């Protein structure tokens, strides 16, 4: 069986000889869009059992099945890093979720701040974007995407063992600095387009487990800031180091 060129996320267990049934959308994608037929190789992953080379055993317009052959990659967990961000415009929020998945965030948490414009998000749609990003980037883990939560409520119940890298746009004006270099559980916090309120900034500054950092000489858009912060963290403390 040839190497698979298509990767597909499934929710069923994966293992030697395991049969995986496809739902209607997956069957349409695999057989209608990608024109795969019986015998075609497909890489499957479920975020738990690693990646498995499988073979199409049934192909139909509304359903299908594959059988797992061999494991091609074990589960690769990302560093214990969460991304907290204030949702912005739809397409750019989608971009943040996709890039956070590609760059190795272990959890993605939309937060509502004082200046957040969006009061709700489609959690299911954002989770789908995370799945699609993992399919494309070769990842074997899909980060869970939480529903929107108020930043204040989140901080009220925050475990201080997980430190917060608070990307403060008010510090912009020079080279990136104050990036910590010690490992452990972390969360990156990115604010909204309007920035953090003074009350939020004061509360974060008072937390012993919050660490303010500057991302460079210019104020970045929220989606750019998320990518920049993830890059800096990954290259100093993550699995890029």
Describe this structure in words.
This protein is of the alpha/beta class and 241 residues long. It has a six-stranded parallel beta sheet, with helices on both faces. Strands 1-3-4-5-2 form a five-stranded mixed beta sheet. Strand 3 and strand 4 form a beta hairpin. The chain is elongated. The model has no long low-confidence stretch (mean pLDDT 93).
Key features?
241 residues, alpha/beta, six-stranded parallel β-sheet, five-stranded mixed β-sheet, 6 helices, 11 strands, elongated
Tell me the layout of helices and strands:
Blueprint: E1 7-9, E2 19-22, H1 24-33, E3 41-45, E4 51-59, E5 64-73, E6 81-85, H2 90-103, E7 107-112, H3 123-137, E8 149-150, H4 151-156, E9 163-167, E10 186-190, H5 198-206, E11 210-213, H6 222-236
Parallel strand pairs: 1-3, 6-7, 6-10, 7-8, 9-10, 9-11
Antiparallel strand pairs: 2-5, 3-4, 4-5
What's the gist of this structure?
The chain is α/β, with parallel strands linked by helices and 241 residues long. 29% of the residues lie in helices and 24% in strands.
Shape: elongated
Mean pLDDT: 93
Task: List segments where confidence is low: pLDDT < 50 over at least 5 consecutive residues.
Answer: none
Q: Beta fraction of the residues?
A: 15-25%
Q: What structural class is derived from the secondary structure elements?
A: alpha/beta
Strand order of the largest sheet: 8-7-6-10-9-11
N-to-C SSE string, H for helix and E for strand: EEHEEEEHEHEHEEHEH
Residue share in helix: 25-40%
Task: State the distance separating the first and last CA atoms.
Answer: 36 Å
Helix count equals 6
């Amino acid at each position: 069986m040839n190497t698979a060129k298509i990767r597909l996320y499934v929710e069923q267990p994966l293992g030697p000889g395991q049969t995986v049934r496809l739902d209607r959308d997956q069957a349409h994608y695999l057989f209608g869009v990608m024109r795969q037929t019986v015998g075609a190789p497909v890489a499957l992953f479920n975020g738990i059992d690693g990646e498995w080379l499988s073979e199409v055993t049934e192909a139909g317009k509304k359903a299908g099945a594959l059988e797992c052959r061999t494991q091609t990659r074990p589960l690769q967990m990302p560093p214990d890093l969460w991304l907290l961000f204030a949702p912005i415009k739809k397409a750019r929020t989608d971009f943040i979720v996709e890039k956070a998945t590609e760059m190795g965030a272990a959890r993605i948490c939309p937060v509502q701040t004082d200046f957040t414009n969006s009061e709700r998000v489609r959690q299911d749609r954002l989770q789908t974007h995370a799945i699609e990003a993992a399919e494309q980037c070769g990842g074997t883990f899909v980060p869970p995407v939480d529903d929107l939560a108020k930043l204040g409520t989140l901080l009220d119940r925050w475990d201080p063992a997980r430190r917060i890298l608070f990307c403060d746009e008010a510090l912009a004006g020079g080279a990136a600095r104050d990036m910590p270099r010690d490992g452990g559980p972390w969360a990156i916090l990115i604010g909204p387009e309007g920035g953090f309120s003074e009350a939020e900034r004061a509360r974060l500054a008072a937390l012993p487990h919050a660490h303010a950092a500057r991302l460079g000489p210019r104020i970045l858009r929220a989606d750019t800031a998320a990518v920049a912060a993830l890059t800096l963290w990954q290259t100093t403390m993550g699995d890029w180091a």
